[in-house]
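Appendix B, Record 12. Input sequence as logged:
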Amino acid sequence: MNQIHRCCRNSFFIIIFCLVANLLTITSVLAQDIVGEDVDEIISLLNQQQYSTDYFQEKLLPRLASIDNDNQKINLLIQSCVYSMFADQYSEVKICSQRLSILAEQIKNKSAKNIAAIYLIVGEVNLQDSSDVAHKKLSTLYPTLISKHAKIHYDIALAMTAIREDFPILENQILRNSLQKIIGQSNYSFEEFAMLWALSAISKDANEYVNLTLRLLRSSNKHNYVINKASFLYNLQWHLTGVNEIIIANRVANELLKLAKEETDESSKVLLLLAYLDNKARLKENVPTETISYIKSVTTDDEFWQAWLNTVLSFYYATEQNEQMSRYYFDVAKHYFDAQPDLATPDEFIEIESILAFNSKDYSKAKALQDKFWWKKYLTIKTNQQNNIIDVRNTLKKVIDEEQKSRIVVEQLLLKSEQASITLATVLFIIFILVIFQYKMYLKLKHEVETRVKAEVGLREAKSLAIEAKIDAEKATMKAEKANQAKSEFLSNMSHEIRTPMNGVLGSLQVLKQENLSDSSKELVDIGIISSKNLITIINDILDLSKIQSNNISLESLPTNIGELFKSIILELSFLAEQQGITLIFTIEEDLCTYWLTDPIRLRQIIVNLISNALKFTPKGEVSITLMEKDEKVVFEVKDTGIGLSPAQIKKLFIRYEQADTSTTRNYGGTGLGLSIAKQLTNLMGGDINVISEENVGSIFSVVLPLKKTTLKSHSKLALKKTQAPQAQGFDILLAEDNKINQKVFNAVIRPTKANIRIANDGIEAIAEIGKLIPDLIFMDIQMPNMDGVEACKAIKKSNPNIPIIALTANVMAHDIKKYRQAGFDDCLGKPIDVQEIYTLLQKFLTSAQTNKASDIDN
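Logged structural output:
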């Protein structure tokens, strides 16, 4: 019987032992103990540190000037960037990265230049910025990184910019992958050290943090890398406090107090003290009165850290149920943070109010405030796990004590051992199932993390390709813009170079026409004038084509007498029709509205091109033009009895540089631009051109324009009538023109007016002539040596703002005219000059001058 009892008793102890072992295994999976020896080694290694961040900034960095080896300088600057980033000293990161960039450029070190670009982005981050700011910029930079060294620092910087995110799992895994690749490589000892630092900084698990910190400090002491002892002790006590490792956390807190008393920097002293006090408050341990007095006596000029110390003092007094002192320090700290719009309100404020509400038994308010803690879920999980471990240990201890004290009770329980064994086996089986389930969940999470890492790598590669494509597209766009600009400049220069000699030709012909010539000579002069104007029309077509192609043409909306516009064009082209023996007929509806809003210059261009085209391709017969109004729209038709067009030819009619067939150019001439420009201008006005044609019968071109009627009257100079030379005897005119031929032509044009004319060869001479005698009117060429027309106009208008100045220029594009108006010119004449336009302007300013003189006499 005793043997049976002994056997049962042994079985019971075996089952108890298995239960204890399994429970310890399960709880160790949930939350492993912090090994006290590891923490002791961390404190020991921290005390062995020979260097500090202050030593690095004050003594090592100034050695840069005395180091001859550029690679040593680069390594020292890279280390400075990393240390400053870990200390949140972003201004120092920026300065060091700029120095690194300059040195890398000098020695052509592309890898160092990439690293400098990474930390320059980090250096431009503010503490108040969200992590997205630097994250997005770094992601854009990644495709340009060429070296493994630079990509390692990219991973470090990316992880550190994500510290303020709740759980940067992806950055953590990326850093781990990079760390595995470089462990043990002598070339990357500092990078291994920095990665361990970054991993410990973003770690949310206390055991992991202790392990990483231990590895980090071993590497630091081995290679003499600098660390911040205060920072590591602060983070260590935070992790230990979060998992209720009370004894070890107290040991670290005492080290913090000891280090604070030795610290000379006020801000660092405050940081250490608030970490110590936060630890004591969270573990609800009393602080000696002399220590509290010492903490309250410490002050700093840095208002930010002083406010944080006041916040922690308020938290400590709240846990001590001293509401008066807690409220006092709470109000002082809150006053500072409320005055800083860029700083977020600390979460500790919510925690303090929650504790005060709990102390005053306002439990509903306390619970509502507790639910706002961003870290509540994380800390609650850790705290519950540790509480479960402690409960299990205490229970097991009680069981063992009871077994040792009460052998009699155990003997009685042996009778029910079989049933207890079955129950315990069932419990163990359930626990085993739970372990398997947790393991599967772990494998699933691991798979998801690996999938996200792969997706991130693929996304980076896709972004790299997208950025390269964008760069290629931008280069192509810039190349096209440069080509378009070069073309525009070429056409503008060609226009100027052609218009300048044409000014002499057309001006001379117009002056010669006013002389007493025989009929045959007058006919030749008229032919020369028409030919010159046709050449100018071709130049204008080429310029307009360039503007349309570059989408750089704009339309005006001016009140225009369309009937008078048509009449002036018919009058101009009637001579050409007479030369060809063609009858030119114009019909206008009686009820047509007089004034319409349109761009008179572009409308004139459309009409001239269509009528000129009809005259060109009509060997005999007539060309009739009909102007009418249909459905509130302006409609005009140009009908001819010319050679006509086939359906195939009509399809190519409005294509640039195309004509009906190759023989057309030989028989009738032309550039093939007129109808194309007319079509595009009509479309820009919202209208359309339709063609009906039959070979050897003729063609009808119909134009429909959706213009708006207006009651305003036109002030356009398009319908200039033949004006006789005004009598301007005693009227003083100053001509500023450097071209001798243009001087003679202009002199010949003005001579019939009997006005007094003076000539200046450039802007400087023009200003000098005004100093001698103020003229009544100035004609000013734009392009002149020494001082051009624009500068001369500005100088003259500054001292004599009432003198009218008319620009003479071969640059007649819209933006040129606008520039001259802004410079102060009262009007503008394009080269080659038109005698009728000169006489019209002369009559206008002559009348104005006479009116002003009469007004002065009356006064």
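Confidence is low (pLDDT under 50) at residues 1-32, 374-393, 662-666, 716-720.
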